Amino acid sequence: MSSYEGYEASPEDSLLHMDNATFNGLLAIGCLATLSFMFTSGLLGFISWRMISWKRFYASSIGHNQSIVLIYQLLLADFLQSLGFLISFYWASARQIIGPSDACFVQGWLIQLGDVSSAFFVLAIALHTVYQVAFSKSLTHRGFLVAVSSVWGVALLLTSLAPIVGGRFIFERAGVWCWIKSDHENLRLLLHYLWIFIIEFGSIAVYTVGFVYLWQAKKPGSQFRSDASLESLNKASRAMLAYALAYTVMTLPLAAGRMASMSNRQPPDSYFFFAGCLFTSSGWVDTVLYAITRRSLLFKEMRGPRPARLSISDQLRSHRSGFTRHNSTDDILGVDASGFAGIKLETTVKVDVESPTSSVAPSHNYSVSAKRHTMQNDMV
C-alpha cells in the first residue's frame, strides 16, 4: 500500500526508520488486536446463531432482549476497532509507518469508527438500563431499532466528517498508528475526544442515578415491584455497569495521553504502547464480561425451551380422558415468589365420593392440586 499520488511522505507525518522498541510495541498491539478480533468475531457468530435458532434453547427470542442487542452492537464496534489495529502487523513487517497512504487511511478510519461507536453504545447501555429500572419497562421494538440505527448513523457521520472536512490526507501517523494528524486539533477534539470524555463520565453518572433509585426502592414501604423482580434488575444493572467501567479503564489512558500531547506535554512512546495495548483489548475484555454476566441479562429467556405443540390426536385423547392440557408458555413458564425460574406443572385430580347408605345423599367433591418446578439450564 503506497502513498497517495502527488504527496511525498516526510519524517513529520511518517516513521521511515523503525527501531526495535517500536517494532516490539507494534507486535504487542497487533497480538492483542488479534485476540480481540478472534473473541469478538466468535461471540458475534455465536449470538447470531442463537438469535436465529432461539426456539431450540430459550422460552422467548433473545433478538428481542434489548440488553443483549445493545451488547451485540458494542461487540461489533470492538470488532471494527480490532480490524484497524491488525494493520499494526503490516507496519511492523514494513518497518515503516507511511502516512498518508491507503493503509494509513483505512487504519485511522476503522479505529475512529470503532472507538466512537463503542463509546455511544456504552452510553446507550447505561441509559437503557436506568430507563428499565426507573420505569419498569423497555422501549417498543420499533423505537428500539430506530435508536440503534441512529447511534450507528451518528458514529458514521462523525467518522466521515474527518476526511470530508480535512481531505484525503487527514489520517497520518499519530505515534505508532494512524489517526487524525496533529495540525487538525479542532477535528480531534470535536469529532473524538469531546465525545469520549462526555461518555466516560456521563455513563458513570447515569449508573449512579440508577443505583440510587434501586437503593431507594429497597427501603421499607417503597412502592416497587416484587423482591424477585427487584433483585433481577439489580443484578442486570451491575452487569451492565461492568461494561462502562471496562470502557473507561481501556480508553482513559489513551485519551489522557492525546490531550497531554495537545497541551505540548508529549508522553513517551512507551506510554502510548501501554495505552494502545489497553485500547485494543476492549474486544476480548467485553467478550469475557459477557461470558460472566450473561445469565444476569438473560433471566427471562433462561426458563427453558418452548414446549412442543400437541398433535390433534393427543389433544383429542386428552379431551376424552377428562384432562385439559395447557400448551401455552404463559401457563407453564413462570417465576415463583422466591425468584425461581423454571417449568411449572400443575395437576388437578377430581375425586367424587358418594355416600353408600343413601341414594339421595349429596356427593362430595374434593380437588387436589399439585405444583412443581423443573429447572432446565442451558449454555447461552
UniProtKB/TrEMBL annotation:
Residues 70-215 form the Glucose receptor Git3-like N-terminal domain. It is found in: Membrane. It is a multi-pass membrane protein. Residues 231-296 form the G protein-coupled receptor GPR1/2/3 C-terminal domain. The keyword Lyase does not apply. The keyword rRNA-binding does not apply. Pfam families: Git3, GPR_Gpa2_C. Its main location: membrane. Keywords: Membrane, Transmembrane, Transmembrane helix. InterPro entries: Glucose_rcpt_Git3-like_N, GPR1/2/3_C. SUPFAM superfamilies: Family A G protein-coupled receptor-like. The chain crosses the membrane at residues 25-47, 68-91, 111-131, 143-171, 191-215, 236-256, 271-293. PANTHER family: G PROTEIN-COUPLED RECEPTOR 157-RELATED, G PROTEIN-COUPLED RECEPTOR GPR1. This is G-protein coupled receptors family 1 profile domain-containing protein. It comes from Apiospora marii.
